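Example (one chain per record):
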Amino acid sequence: MSNEVKVWLRALKDGSMSLDQVAQEFRNHTWTAKQSSPTTTYEQLAAAELADPEPYISGSFDDVTAAYHQGDLTDSQYDVLANAMTESIRSSDGD
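Predicted structure:
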């Protein structure tokens, strides 16, 4: 299975796609939702805070965050892609 997110990030890095093109792909992409239980009490919130971090999900925005932390994305590129992902999620919530 291909990881489209990594393909787009590589294309951005090597210049074969512009930031605007990658952002448009992000807007059109269906993003994997992280599954977490809502916390309703202080005890649940404290337990969630102490729990192991969620696993890395390939093909999710985790790939973008990893690229940012590796220095492959600038602050402004990360912001544009995060906003594009948010737009995608908001538009899919309205379905």
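Caption: The radius of gyration is 15 Å.
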